[in-house]
Amino acid sequence: MGAAKAKRSKNGKVEAVLEYTPIGNKAWYFKNKSQALTHWPFLGTLPSLLWYSKRWPERSTEIYFSIGCGSFILNGPVFSKLRYLVTCHCQNLEYILKTNFSNFPKGPDFGEVFDILGVGILNVDGSSWRLQRRMGHTVLSTSEFRNLVAKESRKMVNDQLVPFLTHVAREGTLIDL
């Protein structure tokens, strides 16, 4: 990408001078500027992430639409371990979270960050995860649980949502649901 040439300084030392660095190279910049997510040399996508940090959900949707698929890679700086696959594609999500879960372990770093959650389904891998998922599925699929959720939802709608909407209608106020 860049060309280097040797130059002799005043004190006789030879210094390498980069004539065209990737960041300074205008052709490189304009070529990569048109991409959905700019991959900077040495810094990866970190500058782009920081630039759009205040509106990341909207920006990620723009990226999904501009690249025409539901997945893209986020690279961190060159010597870091940061490399993430970001996806909203339904088949990818099913493959990662259900079909082939064992190929995507969370790893020790994840456990350290989310240590406060303990050893629940969100923090474990392998057979422990499978056992907890099976137990959770059993509880969530019972008719008692479904009846409880329906009863509480109905109560919340009748006690909170209907009075609120009645008040809004009486006042003639516009709201954004």
From TrEMBL:
The keyword Iron applies. Keywords: Iron, Metal-binding, Oxidoreductase. InterPro entries: Cyt_P450_sf. GO terms for molecular function: heme binding; iron ion binding; monooxygenase activity; oxidoreductase activity, acting on paired donors, with incorporation or reduction of molecular oxygen. It comes from the Eukaryota. The keyword rRNA-binding does not apply. Belongs to the cytochrome P450 family. This is Cytochrome P450. It comes from Kingdonia uniflora. The lineage of its organism: Eukaryota, Viridiplantae, Streptophyta, Embryophyta, Tracheophyta.
